[in-house]
Amino acid sequence: MAGLLSAQSTVVSSNLSTAKKPCAPALSQDRQPPWQRILPILVLLASMILFGLLVMKRTAWRNAPYGDAQVYFRAAWAVRAGVDLYEVSDHHGWHYTYPPILAILMAPLADAPPGANPTGLLSFETSVAIWYLCGLAFWVLGLHVLACALEQSSADPAVRAQSWGSRRWWLLRLVPLLACLPPAGHTLMRGQVNLLLLFLVCVAGALLLRGWRMLAGVTIALAGAIKVLPLFLVLVGLWRRDFRFLSGFGLGLALFLIGVPCLVLGPERAFFSYQSLVRTILAPGAFGANDTSRPEITDLSVNHSQSPVAVLHRLQFWDEPQRPARAEAASRMIHWGIGALLTLTTLAAAGWRRGPFPVRISEVVDGPRQVLFLGALTGVMLLVSPVSHLHYFCLLAPLVMGIVALDLETRGTDRLSMSLTLALAANLIANVLPQFPGLETLRSLGIAAWGFLLLWLIAMWGLRRREHIPALSKYCTSTS
After folding, report:
1. Alpha carbon 136 to its chain's center
2. I need a labelling partner for 385 at 20 to 30 A (CA). Which of 119, 137, 374, 474 fits?
3. pTM of the prediction?
4. 190 located within any domain
5. What is the pLDDT of residues 370-391, one digit of tens each?
6. Which residue range(s) make up the domain with 371?
7. What's the structural domain count of the chain?
């Protein structure tokens, strides 16, 4: 693969070397002093430490821990103890609702339920601290890896040669981080798994930009094996008819959904685990099956899902005490219709073209639109899911990064346009307001989903602007 990457870089460099010099410098000279380059890092570190103390106070240093971390730790204990991982629960009575691979990976953080032998296990406080640090690492490293891939695949030599800490370098990383800060903070506070999924999606996007398509498919398969929803992103390979991506995806599913669980749990136990997953989670959530043993997931009268089916159900039965637990068939049909419309529109905007990633236009890598395509499908994935909690929307970070990269590359600048700044601020407000007590009405109306739809419309416009390709707008190529 290293040889393939080297060859690809040589081809891109030779193509760019034949182009004339830019008509105008793409980026202004960034003469920031060193302390201004390092200051954002210091602010981020201080914020993460302070927020970590708050997480420990609410999760680890109280008798009734807040969040979902204990659910994962108890399922990890079930893997080690040889019991049914879908029957153990935390102190709230909540159950594990994911495929087995996540519980297997989290076995080192196992937490024994009351009455069980805790010998050889970490303390609950230690496990919470480790999981919080892992979430921070997934968040920051995922954004950095994807941003680096975007910069190194840019058609603009000034972008490829920019130094770390410049204004544009920080914009590509900080804007997605800040735009998705409320759901990411919510994820960290609850000890949820979304930042791991964000990391895997960002890594898959970076691998696609670098031409490592089979490994990108394996990465998406791992995300889908951890939480079923990312399996939706197989559309990236199907729509491009990228057989290397699809073969990696199939290999990853075989490894993470079948191979590892059968090896660790045993074939019979793995089979019964998947049987429980389908019966208690997938069938009731997607199709409204009768099993009600997991109300924290399937009961629409108590959760705060932002999905169309949940919003329609709340509008139909606005009086919460009288609200049924399950949505009517008509609401579910409308939900799937909205999901199909958003999906087909995204695919159409990306264009039906066959070939490996990244797509080349005039022999130049069009990285921002590839990230836009992946990010837009990731956002649609959140709305397609019948259960879409507020903290899921941290997965919009790749979409935000694609929009920012396209804006900067198209205009040849290191400052965001005012219209994009306002749109990002609107999405940020849409994710902040539902977190406050007293604003439950906005949460019930699915305001976070409306914020995503605004970004999705911008992405569709960016995908369709074929005439404003960065390579064509920045270079005066010879036609002779």
Report:
1. 14
2. 137
3. 0.85
4. yes
5. 999 999 999 999 999 888 889 9
6. 136-474
7. 1
